[in-house]
Amino acid sequence: GEDVEQSLFLSVREGDSSVINCTYTDSSSTYLYWYKQEPGAGLQLLTYIFSNMDMKQDQRLTVLLNKKDKHLSLRIADTQTGDSAIYFCAETITSGGYQKVTFGTGTKLQVIP
Amino acid sequence: DSGVTQTPKHLITATGQRVTLRCSPRSGDLSVYWYQQSLDQGLQFLIQYYNGEERAKGNILERFSAQQFPDLHSELNLSSLELGDSALYFCASSVERLGVETQYFGPGTRLLVL
Question: Is pLDDT at A3 greater than 90 in this prediction?
Answer without folding.
Answer: no
